[in-house]
Structures are given as structure tokens and as C-alpha cells.
Give the backbone structure.
Amino acid sequence: MSFLENYAFYIGAFGLILIGLYVILVKHNLIKVIIGLAVLDTGVNLFLISVGYITEGTAPIFSGSETDGQQMVDPVPQALVLTAIVIGVAVLALALSLAIRLYHHYGTLNLREIREQKW
Amino acid sequence: MIFFVSLLVVLMLLGAVAACIFRDLISAVIAAALVSLIASILFYFLQAPDVAMAEAAIGAALTTAIFIVAIRRTNRYEQ
Amino acid sequence: MRKTISIILLSIVAVGMSLSLAKVPFGQPKTKVGQRYIDKGVEETGAVNIVTSVVVSYRGFDTLGEVTVLFIAATGLGAVLKIGKREAAAIEPASFVLRTGCRVLFPLILVFGSYIFIHGHLTPGGGFQGGAIVASAFVLIYLGCRERRISETASTTLESLGGLVFVVAGLIGLAVGGYFLLNFVPKGQPYSLLSAGIIPVIYIAIGFKVGSELAGIIDNLIEEST
């Protein structure tokens, strides 16, 4: 019970990273590999935010009410993850444009057939 | 409260496994959008409202739109 | 064969990660610099949202790098996908209800996105979130009224102007004070709209830039035939 309380977020992030890595390593279709990259990205961001959490903390915004003396969670990982999410979507868009050009050139998106067709 | 979070984590992992298994690529993209949406709810539980808003707007909406437009120009089914 | 090797490798990674995750306690304060940003944040930058002051003021140079990476990705996508000129095939227009609904919703979503990036230093939000919402409004127009496109010169001009305002604001800070991105505008009262110095100006520039950039990415990916 206390194990679940302490580690539920870690298990979620950790499972997403492993599933994303499995999809990248095993699947043959190029768009499936890019979907695995997106899942891996979400897992790493979830892990970074859950490291910065402080028990019984509140969001790092002052609101002018009398609850401003409380302990706040760490704001530095949140700023870094904001950057990471935007860069993740930029990389995904560029990868998809390269996949479209590969499809126009080879006629298929199966990585085994592309590797055989090269010579 | 902790049971609710555990239920959401189990649902997120099932969505990620579904994105790996489906052969119709548009269904796999919708499963990845489900993963992103539940991650946004978990960010809210970790007291990070800025990151939750960014993940919901960028991860769930724009990534899905970019994927669907790219799949339209190539094959729909995985061979 | 490939599956068994990858499962063995991933189980080695899993064992290593879980052994090192047991040493990271969940819920304990781990750094000291976060507490210092919370204590001195409002009086040094004037912004009430501490994450905004970290992103724009304390770590402003990293945000400049991120804006550059986004710009490079959008330009690269435009360069890779110019296969030929687009042939305009005949598209059947959407139904009347869909077209009118999209036309009614479009200015409302634009106003909501602008509200989020203008008030970035007071409420949760900021340039990136507001820019993504503005880009979603343009995706709605592409789905509903299929024959309208945004003009390419307008989107690239807005994007370049946004980046230029950010860099010029930093250079003015370098000329006036001592270092790049110095907060040279006087900080007003906290909790009011015209406070926090240069932070609202930078976030408005980032909001315009990210919105037009993401809309331009979708515009380059959509092809009209088939």
C-alpha cells in the first residue's frame, strides 16, 4: 500500500519508456516507429515532473490569498519539461516529412523492403 | 485518491500497449493520443498546471493532427 | 530472433532502471535552487507565476535556443516537402452546418488563445500554450471550410517578426545594462497586467511565433488531391 503510494507515478513513466523502446526496436513500419518515439517522449516528460514533486506541496503560483505560505513544488523541472514538449513535436513533424519523402521515392514504408531495394 | 491515480496509470499503460498492437495506423495514433491525454491529467495531480496545459494542447491535439495528415499521404494499413 | 534479443536487452535496462529508481525517494525536496527561485522570484522579476519567471527571465537563453530549434524544424519541413506545385483538384465543400459552425468558432478560439499568452505572468499559461491553441483554430478552418488557406507570406512574416522581437529585446538589454536579456523596463505592481518588465513582451512575441509556425507546418503537410 505504501509502496503503491510512493511509486505509482514512477511505474507509469517507466512502463511508457519501456513500451516506447520496444516499438522502436521491433516494428517494421516507419510510421509505427515514429508513434513509438512519441510514446517514449511522453514517458520521459512524466518521469521528470514526478521527480520534482514534494509531498503536500502546491502549484508554484502566488495567488494573493492567505494560502501563500505553504510549501511549493520545484519549479525548475516544470520549466525544462515545457521546453522538451515543444521540441518533441518539432522533431516529430520533421520525421514525418522525411517519411513522406521516403514513401514517394520507394513506394513502400516497410523497412525490410527498403533495405532490400537499395542495391 | 491513490486508487484513482493507479487506475489512470493502468489505463495509460493499456493504451500504450494498444498503440503497439493495432495494425490500422489511425487506431494506433488515437491510442497514442489517449496516452497523452491521461499524462496531462497526471500532470495536474502532480501540481503542474502549466505543463498540463502544454501537454493537452500540443501532445493530444496537434500531434494527432500532424500524424493523421501524414498517414493520409502514405499507407493506412501496416503491411 | 529480433524480438527475443530486444526483450532480453529491455529486461536488462528495466532491472538497471528499477535498481537506481529505488534510491530516488518520491516526495522529498531534492534541490536547493528551486527553493531560492520561489523565495526571491516575485521581488526580482515581478512575475507572480514562478514557472514563467524561470522560463523567460532566469533561463531565458534556453528559451531562445528552443525557439531556434522550432524555427529550424519548420523551415526544414518546408524545404523537404516542396515536391512540385500543388495541383488544385476539385474538392467537394463541406455541409452548411459544418462551415457555419467553424466560422463561428474560429474568432472565439483565437481570442481564448490570445488571452492565455497575454496573461502568461499572472495565471498558468504562457506563449507556448497560447500559440498551440491559436494553431488549433487554424486546423479547424482547414477541416471545416476546406477551400480556404492562409497565405504563406503572412505566416512566414509573422513568424520572423516574433523571433526578431525576442532577439532585439535581448540586445537592448545588453546595450542598456550589462548582460543579454536584462529586465530594463521597470517592474510595476505584482498581480497587475502591466507588470514584470519585459516578460509580457517576450511572451506575446513567442505566442505569435509559435502559433503561425505550427499552422504553417500543418499547411505544408496538407495536400489537396486524393
User: Anything to note?
Assistant: Residues 32-73+96-221 of chain C form one domain. DSSP finds eight helices and no strands in chain C. The mean pLDDT of chain C is 86.
